[in-house]
């Protein structure tokens, strides 16, 4: 820990603000470890979250959870993806859960850091987290030791809580708008189905997609080449297609990444369809 030039702010390593827990996956040879008792979170689940984690696509049984009891995270643990193309995503849980080994989590020492402030601080530190993982490895990864050594600046606790309170209020408003948008999207989908499917008549023509439009297949620049990433060109993965309308991307690539990969630059108004995976 060291003093900061900011009034009252201090620099801490993550190991100094709480206990870091790296998740673990039960053996697939033991199907009894999976069931319906405790959520089991992986990086794939993060596409379902805005900030808070209250569910997961997979669940462990009480047997599996007991085997990994040292990995159970209490509510308000800050969970960070630390391997692969999804590295650097942050969430905070509202219920006890277990993660896989691709996620490092911090159980906050509330005498040092407010969990909500820590969440926002790590969201802000996305590029720092990514830079740790791109150092000389084919697959981006931040191991537990390096993760614990990441440095962050913290103000006094009352200031942390005040800042986190303002940001949480804004997040709540954003979440409300997203839910309202989902409702409107559902209404639009129902109208589309009624007008263009249920009420279609003999004057309508059918054909193959290739008869009416141009199709392009996307691609992913190599994650082992940092010069391809953190540029100015928005890049999305299939999980973001769930957003229906895409106003901004969570990742960006460079001109070099675009030029030297199979990915394509698509014009505004393009219809994007996920063709692989759970999405």
From TrEMBL:
What are the residue boundaries of the Type I restriction modification DNA specificity domain, all occurrences included?
6-185, 203-276
Which ranges of the sequence are coiled-coil? Answer: 167-194
Output one GO MF annotation: DNA binding
Keyword Cell wall biogenesis/degradation annotated? no
Presence of the UniProt keyword RNA-binding in the record: no
Keywords of the record, alphabetical order, are: Coiled coil, DNA-binding, Restriction system
Q: Its Gene Ontology biological processes?
A: DNA restriction-modification system
Please give the Pfam families that the UniProt record associates with this protein: Methylase_S
Family per record = Belongs to the type-I restriction system S methylase family.
Protein name, as recorded: Type I restriction modification DNA specificity domain-containing protein
Q: Which organism is it from?
A: marine sediment metagenome
Q: What is the lineage of its organism?
A: unclassified sequences, metagenomes, ecological metagenomes
């Amino acid at each position: 820990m060291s003093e900061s030039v900011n009034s009252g702010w201090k620099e801490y390593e993550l190991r100094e603000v709480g206990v870091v827990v790296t998740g673990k996956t039960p053996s697939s040879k033991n199907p009894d470890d999976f069931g319906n008792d405790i959520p089991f979170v992986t990086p794939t689940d993060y596409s379902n979250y805005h900030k808070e984690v209250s569910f997961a696509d997979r669940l462990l049984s009480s047997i599996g959870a007991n085997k990994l009891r040292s990995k159970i995270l209490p509510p308000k643990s800050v969970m960070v993806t630390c391997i692969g193309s999804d590295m650097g995503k942050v969430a905070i849980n509202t219920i006890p859960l277990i993660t896989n080994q691709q996620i490092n989590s911090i159980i906050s020492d509330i005498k040092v850091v407010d969990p909500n402030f820590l969440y926002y601080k790590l969201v802000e530190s996305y590029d720092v987290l990514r830079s740790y993982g791109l150092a000389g490895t084919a697959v981006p990864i931040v191991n537990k030791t390096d993760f614990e050594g990441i440095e962050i600046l913290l103000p006094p606790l009352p200031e942390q809580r005040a800042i986190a309170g303002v940001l949480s209020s804004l997040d709540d408003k954003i979440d409300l708008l997203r839910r309202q948008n989902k409702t409107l999207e559902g209404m639009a989908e129902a109208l589309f189905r009624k007008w263009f499917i249920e009420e279609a008549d003999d004057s309508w023509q059918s054909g193959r997609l290739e008869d009416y439009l141009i199709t392009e297949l996307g691609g992913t620049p190599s994650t082992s080449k940092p010069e391809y990433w953190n540029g100015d060109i928005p890049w999305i993965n299939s999980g973001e297609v769930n957003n229906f309308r895409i106003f901004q991307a969570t990742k960006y690539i460079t001109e070099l990444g675009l030029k030297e990969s199979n990915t394509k630059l698509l014009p505004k108004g393009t219809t994007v369809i996920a063709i692989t995976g759970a999405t």
